[in-house]
Amino acid sequence: INEFINNNNNIQQLPNASNNSNTQTNLHAGSLDAVNLYGSIPLSGPHNFYDAFAELYEENKSDCNLQDMVTLIKLATQNDIIAINNNYYRQKMGLAMGNNLSPLLAIVYMHKIEQNIMQNAPNMIVFWRRFFDDVFNISLCPLDDILPIANGINSNIKFTIEKLDANNSIPFLDTRVILDNNIVETKFYSKDLHSGHILPFTSHTTLQRKIATLKTERSRAIRITNGNQNNLYEALCFLKTRFIRNGYPMQLIQRYLTNPPPRPPNSTNYNNSNINNNHTEITIAANTPQSVKL
């Protein structure tokens, strides 16, 4: 999504690019989502993962031997065992969700799928960004024209689409994208089903980590809203409510969820004269509901 945000200025210039190419077609935006990606990746037969990996390996030469790499991947993917009622079963189709290697292999396989989509949809796709199996797309044709191409690449991998709503917007990850008259606007987005839970202020961790959480959320809001001050204000108000519900004091929230960002504290406030060298506080984690402070 960061790459998407960083390219937002280029998206806003798309109408000019269309005019330069004597194209008056309106742009269409939407998202594609692979259905059950992990469980649908074939490990044998046509379009199996190992063949796709070998093709990508040949395109990106490495010092590692291809056969050794494939052997190691097969060892990691063809021995996923599950126990049900004291009976043991080996997964024969797809990648196991609990396998640590599965996310990386799914990304590799999706890369091969999207390469084929690009080759079969020339001059149709203007902008394409993918996060795992979620794709955000801006095209010169309706998304309904791209869906059959995507679903025709591999019989095992099927996609669903989500189009712009009545307000010409669509959520993608933590961003709501608005496409109006070929101009793109991005807003901070959170699903209605989101629990709103973040690192609680009452959690037994350092204050620096809680402050880092505030700073990170603020930076994320700035990147997503891409310089739109109204959208940024709306995002910061939303985040303030979330932090209040997680027990953060208002003084801390106001300090770090502001725009422009606060100045760093004066270093004189932290000189040696303010430190009591006769007192040391140690926190020891214990196997009890509460830790012990000495």
Which secondary structure elements does this structure contain, and how are they paired or packed?
Blueprint: H1 2-6, H2 8-12, H3 14-20, E1 28-34, H4 37-40, H5 49-59, H6 66-77, E2 81-84, E3 87-90, H7 102-120, E4 125-131, E5 134-139, H8 143-151, E6 159-163, E7 169-172, E8 175-180, E9 183-188, H9 207-225, H10 229-245, H11 250-256, E10 283-284, E11 292-293
Antiparallel strand pairs: 1-5, 1-6, 2-3, 4-5, 7-8, 8-9, 10-11
Rounded radius of gyration (Å)? 25 Å
| Secondary-structure-derived class | alpha+beta
* E-strand count: 11
Total helical elements: 11
Shape: globular
Mean pLDDT over the full residue set? 79
What's the order of the H and E elements?
Answer: HHHEHHHEEHEEHEEEEHHHEE
Question: How is the main sheet built?
Answer: 4 strands, antiparallel
Distance between the termini: 44 Å
- The residue fraction in helices comes out at 25-40%
What strand order characterises the main sheet? 4-5-1-6
Low-confidence stretches: 1-24, 263-294
* Beta-strand content bin: 15-25%
